[in-house]
Amino acid sequence: MKCKIFILIVIFISVNLYCQTKITMTKENGVYSIPCKINGLPLKLIFDTGASNVSISITEAMFMIKNGFLTKEDIGEDVYYKIANGDIAKGLKVNIKEIEFAGLKLYNVNATIINTANAPLLLGQSVIEKLGKIQLEGNKLTILNTSQSYDFESANEKVDKSYSQSLKVEFEKKLKTN
Q1: 84: number of CA atoms within 13 Å, CB side?
Q2: Angstrom distance (rounded) from CA 157 to CA 172
Q3: Which alpha helices (H) appear in the chain, and where do they start and end?
Q4: How many contiguous H segments (helices) and E segments (strands) does the chain have?
Q5: Model pLDDT for residues 31-49, shown as the tens digit of each residue
Q6: Is 88:80 a contact under the CB 8 Å cutoff?
Q7: How is residue 61 annotated by DSSP?
Q8: What is the pTM of this model?
Q9: Residues sharing a CB contact under 8 Å with residue 92, sequence separation 6 or more, in sequence order
Q10: How far apart are CA 90 and CA 82, in angstroms?
C-alpha cells in the first residue's frame, strides 16, 4: 500500500513539473521583456499585464508586411484603445497567425497596430489570459499547467468589437468637447 501511494505521489509531482513552463525575462529600463517570434519574426515584447492586447508599432508592422510576416488578409478594421494615461487612440486590428515563446505556440492572436513609430511592443492580455495560471517572481515567469498550443476563439472578436465600438463613441465625444 505504501509503495502505491509513493508511486502516485511521484507521478503527480512529475506531471505538475512537466506541465510548467519557466521563462527568464530580461529587465531593461524598468520593464521585463520576453523574446518571441511573431509569425516567425524574432522580436522582444514587453510583458505587460496592463495592456489589453498584443501591440506592435507601425514601424514593425510595415517591416512585417514588406517582408511577408503579415499579409493584407491579416489586417482588420480600425480599432480604438485606451492608452496608459487614459487617452483614446486609433489603431488597426491585426490577426497574428502565430506567437511563439518559451516553446509555447499560440495561434490566431488578436493584436493592435499602434499608429506611432516608436510605440513599444507589448505582450498583453490577449496572450496572458490564455496562459492560465501564472506566477511572477522577479524576472522569473512560470506558466503553470501549460498546453503546448492554444487557438483563440472567435468569441474574442465579438468582445473586442464591442469594446472598440464603445471606445470609438467615447473618443468621438472627446473630440467634440475639445
Answers
A1: 8
A2: 22
A3: 2-18, 58-66, 125-128, 155-177
A4: 4, 12
A5: 999 999 999 999 999 999 8
A6: yes
A7: H
A8: 0.71
A9: 61, 75, 76, 77, 78, 79, 112, 113, 115
A10: 9
